[in-house]
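This part of the workshop introduces the protein records we will be handling. As an example, a complete record with its sequence and its C-alpha cells follows.
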Amino acid sequence: MTIAIALSSALSALVLAIALVLPSINSPTVPFGVRVPAQRADDPAVVRQTRIYRLRILVGGIVTAGVCVAIYAITGETLLLPLSVLVLVGFWYGCFFLANHEIRAAKAAGGWYEGVRQGLAVDTELRTDPPRFPWLWLAPALIVTVATVVIGVISYPSMPEVLAVHYGAKGVPNRLAAKSVGTAFSLVFVQIGVTALLAGIAAAIIFRSRPDIDPAHPVGSARWHRRYMSLGAKALLGLAAMIDLGMLGSSLLMWTGTVTSWAQLVVVLPILAAVAVAVVVLARNNRERDEGDEDTGLTHREDDKYWRSGLFYINREDHALLVPRRFGLGWTLNFGNPRATMLLAGVVALIGLVITLRFGG
C-alpha cells in the first residue's frame, strides 16, 4: 500500500509541477496556445490569465489529492490512487482551455494583429543537411532487449510451469498463465514494439518535423531548433531504454517466480525516472534563447485557424508529420497529414499488444 501511495504521489507531484511551470517555459508569443505578436506577450489579459490558471491548478491539485486520499482511507481501494493522476490531468487541461478561450477573445477584441508585419522563416538546410540521427542513443535499448532474450533462452528450461504475468498492488501475482514461449517472452515483444515505436518517432522528429522558426530572429531560432530536435530524439531513445529495462526486471520476476511487495517498482521506477529526466532536459531548453541576432521587425503569421483549442494541429497543406507543441514540451502530430493516422495506429497496436499479452492470461 505504501508503495502505491508513494508512486501515485510522486506522479501527481510531477504532473502538478509541469502544469505550474509550463507558462514560463513555453514561447511568450503563444501563451496558452494563442499566437500573439511579441509586443503583446505581456498584455494585461495574458498576465491575468496566467495568474488565474496557476491559482486554479494549485487549488485543483490540492483538492484532488485531498479527495482521493479521503476516499482511499474510507474504501482502501488502491485503484483510486493512480486515478487521481488522471483526474488532475483532466483538470489541468480544463484550466488550459479556459485560459486559451479568454486570450483568444481579448486578442480578437483588441485587434492585436492589426498593422503588424507578418513573416515566415524556413531553414532550407534541414533538407540538404539535416541533424544526424543519434544512433548511439539507440544502442542501450537494443542491448537491454538482446540481454532479455539471451537470459530468457537460458532460463526457459528452469522456469516454473505456471508463470505470474501480472502483479497486484500488494506485489502478489493476480494473473497466472501456463509456461509457453509466447507467455515467457511476452515482454520481449513489448520491448521490441516500444523500441521500434519510439525510435520511429525520434526519426520523425529529425527528418519529418517542421520547426517553428521565429522570423524576428531566423538564424538563432534555426540553430536552437536543431539543438532541440536532437535533444528530443535522444530523450525518446533514453526513455525506450528505461522502459526496456523495466520490462527486463518484470521478466526476471516472472521467470523466477519471485513474489515481492516491490514488484511495481521494478517496472515503474526506471520509467518514472526517465520521464522526469526527459521533462527536466526539455523544459530547460524549451524556450528559444536570445543569441544576439538583430531583430528583423517581423512577427509570426497569425495561424490560429490551424490549431484547435491551441492543442491540436490540423493543416492538410502542411506536409510535416510533427510540429512543435504550442503548450507543452516536444512535438505534436499534424492531424491533417494521413501518415499521422498510421502512427496513431502503431500506438494503438502496441497498447493492444500489451493488454493481450499481460492481461489475456
Summary: The chain is about 60% helix and 5% strand. The mean pLDDT is 85.
